[in-house]
Design goal:
With about 70 residues, the protein is α/β, with parallel strands linked by helices. It contains two helices and four strands; from the N terminus they run E-H-E-E-E-H.
Length: about 70
């Protein structure tokens, strides 16, 4: 099973509505991960800390150019 890390920008994806829709689409098709800071968001995924990118087969970034650049660092 693929491991996907989802990196949302919670100021652009208000209420994480796009993120939650994406999780519903991918649920059961991949192991999904988000950063620990989103644990209280109610999104049903696995959470990880600094090693989150080590868990990823690929990453989905939800936001703008700045979010993409931040994730790439």
């Amino acid at each position: 099973m693929k491991r996907i890390v989802i990196i949302p920008n919670d100021t652009k994806d208000v209420g994480l509505s796009v993120t939650k829709s994406l999780v519903e689409i991918l649920k059961g098709r991949a192991e999904l991960y988000m950063e620990n800071k989103f644990e209280a968001s109610g999104v049903e995924v696995n959470f990880a800390g600094d090693d989150i990118f080590e868990k990823a087969d690929f990453v989905i970034v939800i936001g703008g150019d700045g979010t993409m650049i931040q994730a790439a660092k």
